[in-house]
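$ ./design --mode recover --in tokens.txt
reading tokens...
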């Protein structure tokens, strides 16, 4: 069973809760694994900021990783109540937090590419799938449906055991421009993630970005099983 670090609204700082694996959302009051939450702290300027890496100093307030929940926290002054002090909360905090999540995913994909754990371009992605080297398939948001359909079909038909696993992810969280930035090339629409620690970091950051966006009614999950 997961251990609850502290039932209080605020933690005592990032270095004092290493053993904690759950926290309470300040908005919903639900206890969740910390991977499903975002830690917020008060900067020296008095402004509330997201601490995505859970390393910033000071006491932290935890909110479910959902844009709607963060927006509700802003609207209902949960940050001021939780920190029990006057704080400055930008009305753009929900969007600012999403931008930080996107930047984190881009940076993680760039690190995976530098480690040789990413291939891009239809032919290279197809080859990685057929050789059973890919551990995830990446499509740019708004990418051509035909290319996506063809690679998804290859994944189902030729990727063998990897394609049969419901855990093989197909990721669509970044735009083509963001993929370009991460991979240092232009017009990236399709890519494949290869095995490695850096790739796992990208997958983790993609998952929390998806979770954050999925609360919006007009958003669809952007990480899905390959055989769905």
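writing sequence...
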């Amino acid at each position: 069973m997961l251990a609850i670090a502290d039932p209080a609204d605020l933690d005592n700082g990032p270095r004092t809760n290493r053993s904690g694996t759950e926290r309470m959302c300040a908005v919903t009051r639900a206890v969740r694994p910390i991977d499903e939450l975002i830690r917020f702290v008060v900067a020296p300027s008095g402004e509330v900021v997201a601490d995505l890496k859970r390393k910033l100093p000071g006491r932290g307030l935890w909110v479910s990783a959902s844009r709607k929940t963060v927006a509700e926290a802003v609207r209902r002054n949960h940050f001021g109540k939780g920190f029990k002090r006057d704080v400055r909360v930008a009305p753009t905090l929900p969007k600012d937090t999403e931008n930080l999540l996107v930047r984190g995913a881009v940076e993680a994909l760039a690190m995976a590419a530098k480690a040789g754990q990413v291939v891009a371009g239809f032919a290279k992605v197809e080859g990685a799938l057929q050789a059973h080297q890919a551990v995830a398939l990446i499509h740019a948001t708004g990418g051509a449906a035909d290319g996506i359909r063809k690679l998804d079909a290859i994944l189902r038909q030729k990727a063998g055991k990897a394609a049969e696993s419901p855990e093989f992810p197909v990721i669509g969280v970044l735009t083509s421009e963001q993929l370009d930035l991460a991979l240092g090339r232009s017009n990236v629409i399709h890519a494949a993630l290869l095995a490695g620690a850096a790739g796992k970091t990208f997958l983790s950051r993609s998952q929390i970005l998806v979770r954050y966006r999925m609360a919006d009614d007009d958003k669809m999950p952007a990480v899905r099983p390959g055989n769905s």
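exit 0
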